[in-house]
Amino acid sequence: MRKLLVLALVGLVAQLIDGSLGMAYGLTSSTLLLVVGVAPAAASASVHLAEIGTTLAAGVAHWRFGNVDWRVVTRIALPGAIGAFAGATLLSSISTESAAPWMAAILFTLGAYLLVRFSRPLRTGRVGGRLRGRFLGPLGLVAGFVDATGGGGWGPVATPALLVSGRLEPRKVIGSVDTAEFVVAGAASVGFLIGLGTEGFLLPTVVALLIGGLIAAPLAAWLVRIVPAQLLGAAVGGVIVLTNARTLIRSAELGGPLRPTLYVLLAAGWLTALVFAVRALRRTRRAHATVAAAAATAPAAGLPVLPESASVTPGAADGSAPADLSVAGTPGAR
Q1: What residues have CB less than 8 Å from 212, skipping those under 6 apart?
Q2: Residue 304 DSSP symbol
Q3: What does the pLDDT read at residue 185?
């Protein structure tokens, strides 16, 4: 019972993070499951089975709030499902001893990517145009494969790529990626079912993760207004990097003074990323405050009022992220 409560807490924390960033449910859950000793394939299989429920709830919520571009969903979901099925089949055929460093390496890389991404303002182009299928198809295929083999990665791969394209509003990027993930999670679960059988799924773990995730779903809407995504993303990235570095160092059989030295360097990098994240957050907030002040004084001076959207226009002169991403996390419905 104590272990199930811990797993439910893992699902709750992972969903809170995912609800605030639009990513990292699988990364966080898989990392913590590996820490408690769950085999890599079983961890990824259990997380993806639980994600069928959590992504369905998230997709319905995004749809109700108008955050879904169904054209993007239909063009990214099917390739993502194919990639996830292939990744699940591959991971199922690898021994636990071989899969552990492979999965840890993928999670470590994605954690490092989160550190880099959230330690600086997100740069995007102006929203406009349409995303082409020849871009969405390969993106979904790669994101789905990484997601299944690494136990997570659909959001960290797909969401930034769509944001940087500048062709879709941030809220619709996150809503469309989350909605498409339901199909990806289902395909990965089928792949694990074929490769591992029903014994590959730790059903108590799945239920605990699902319960925690469903409880956290409404709480995430509150958290997103309190904790800046810039800081949360850097913090989560550091946890993922340090946790999976432990597995990689043990697999490489590094000992002596080299092991603590590596941990110190990684911790220093994490601290540096947090410092840069704080600086980027402050710079972004100052820019928004300046624009808001100008908009407030414009009517009195007889000048045209600056549109509200100008304060969150991607690709601003200071290179800052849109306000609804860099300051308060996942954007809400407009």
Answers
A1: 7, 8, 9, 10, 11, 12, 13, 14, 15
A2: P
A3: 93
pLDDT at 215: 81
Residue type, 12: L
Q: At what angle do helices 229-251 and 96-118 cross, to 10 degrees?
A: 150
| Residue found by looking up tokens 């979901």 in the block | 77
Say what percent of the chain tops pLDDT 70: 79
At residue 264, the pLDDT reads: 92
The amino acid at residue 323 is A
283 near 121, Cβ under 8 Å? yes
Q: What pTM was computed for the model?
A: 0.68
To 10 degrees, what angle do helices 2-21 and 40-64 make? 50
Q: Tokens at residue 304, please? A: 């045209």
Place of tokens 């990684």: 266
Cα–Cα distance measured from residue 282 to residue 166, given in angstroms and rounded to the nearest whole number: 23
Of 78-92, 218-232, 310-324, the poorest mean pLDDT is in: 310-324
**Strand, helix or coil for residue 155:** helix
Residues 6+ apart with CB under 8 A from 53: 210, 213, 214
142-158 as b/e, with b when 16 or more CB fall inside 10 Å?
bbbbbbbbbbbbbbbbb
Looking at this protein, which amino acid is placed at residue 219? L
Q: How far apart are CA 244 and CA 113, in angstroms?
A: 14
Q: How many CA atoms lie within 13 A of 53 on its CB side?
A: 18
pLDDT at 100: 73
DSSP string, 99-136: HHHHHHHHHHHHHHHHHHHHTSPPP---S-S---HHHH
Closest to 46 (Cα-Cα) out of 252, 209, 226: 209
Compute how many other C-beta atoms are within 10 angstroms of the C-beta atom of residue 229: 25
Q: Taking residues 22-49, what's their average pLDDT?
A: 82
Helices 133-150/170-196 angle, 10° precision:
50
> Would you place residue 138 in the very low, low, confident or very high pLDDT band (cuts 50, 70, 90)?
very high
